[in-house]
Amino acid sequence: MSSLGNRQLDFYPDTGLRLVFLGITVLATIMLYYELYVGGSVSTALLQNLGITFSFYVRASAVGSLIGAFGSLFAGLTDRFGRANLVVFGLLFTGVFVAFIIPGVTTKWPFIFCTFVVGFVEGTCLVATPALIRDFSPQLGRATAMGFWTVGPVVGSLIVSVVGSNTLPAVIVNTHIWTHEYKICGVAGLVVFVIAFLGLRELSPQLRDQLMVTMRDRALIEARAKGLDIAAALRHPFRQLMKADIIVSAIAVSVMLLIYYTAVGFLVIFLDTVFGISLKNANGLGNWEWGANVVGLVLIGMLSDRLRVRKPLMVIGGIGGAVMIVIYIAQIGGHPSYYTLAAILAITSIFLGIAYCPWMASFTETVEARNPALTATGLAIWGWIIRLVVAVSTFCIPLILTSVTPLVEYGSTALTYEHQYSSQIAWAEAHPKIVAEAQKYSPALANTKRFAPEIAMLESDQALFVKLLYGYSSPSQVPPKLLKQAIGVAGGGATGTKIVDTFFTHSDALQGIAENSAKLTALTPYTKQLTALSKVPSNVFPFLEAHATTLETAQKQAPGQWREWYWVCFGGVIFFILCVPLLRGRWRPSDAKRDEDEHEAMVQAEMAKLGLAEPEAEPAT
User: Are residues 175 and 290 in the same domain?
Assistant: First the structure.
């Protein structure tokens, strides 16, 4: 129990225990990204329910990225104060907000404020988690470990898609359903908090602030830790790391990931507004994209560690990703099948994983080459830059994608109406003259149903009842003989008397029916269709007519505008490829193997000087 307050380890754990800590860290990362991305699965319903315009939502997201950027910068302090407690209690904080506070809001400003608060906490935690991964993984197992960490955002996105595709209906009738997704996510977050609270630990500063290439370095690192000057190593942290290889590389990977963040925030909106894919099926396509990426990340991490190189894999992933973006752009404006889009998204995602996983390993190694005691500071700089890039790009999206606002604000409502009242709308569009006539004579049409018995009697002796309608204003004025005749034709007795009284009580309505009998007779064959049309809410057709031109224009503009944005994403991938040489690491496995052998010889020499026994070999992972 005492270790729950002080989570630092004064020894480097064996492989089994180390894998437990790595596993909890990856689980926490997955959960934090799930909480961060859950709104994307219900974005269209959320915007409608809270009265948020697309442009406002995008700008608020950009501000949220800026706030998260400063949260990431704040996480650099974990080099001084540790990482584990920040992650543990960050999980508690975000779990409570996502499960209970955010679903309770009913207007846009409280929702936006809550997402800002959660974004700041997550921006901090999501720098601390890769720092923990680095601490518990030597360089020769780093890409595999980072591959598992990198699946955090991807599995988070995958969970969002899987939960959304299995819990959301095909057609959204009640837009308040967005709160259900947040509640599910928040409860899961609190479960992960309990696991992390009980199980997560971290290395002491003396251990984590050293460079570890293989597990065979463990004894040497523990010996060095006894005399390490932590204060000196942490002096002027940002000044030590403000170098081109760190800053430019962080910018490069950030712009490469523009397509990823576009998918996270706007995949559902893109698929809905460009291809007309439902919310449920859009989340299903997300399953393909994120599922493929998870597999690719883990496998490429293992391959990178086996080959001992990172840079060639980054280039291969970047080139493959760029080619797939071009293929993706070619689909816009067409009618690709569900599985065509699924294949494109999956392959693109795999190539991006091939580029990103080795980059994460190489970036931490580049930071270590500067100062291994400043890993969290280096990751904080990366986290700050990537969120700044996301914020700037998010601000630009409404300027490029002007068509999205009307499609999001009005399009989904229009589609809902068209789905619910498809037959009525189709019939009305095919018979505009009949609908116009029905609207013109709607009072008379309504009265034909209301006064059906009276009309039937009128038709049985039209001359008699027309004489009554236009000759007298009340039954008392009608001659007894004529009144008796009318009652008899109407059925006699009390029934006939009642019908005749109705003729005089509602004479104006019956006169309207009589005067327009020819028009009403022409509409009689369409009684069934007109009755169905009358059940459509009164606001449906005015809504469709009011926004028809705007939606038609936006639908024409949307494909071209999305193409422009994805070409920007393509440019980001090309810039990433050009910046790969800035990072530390070898291009050829043979050169990397020679470096490993030289390091091993150095370790053995230092251990001999310290009088330490040669350590037993242990798996690199």
Answer: yes
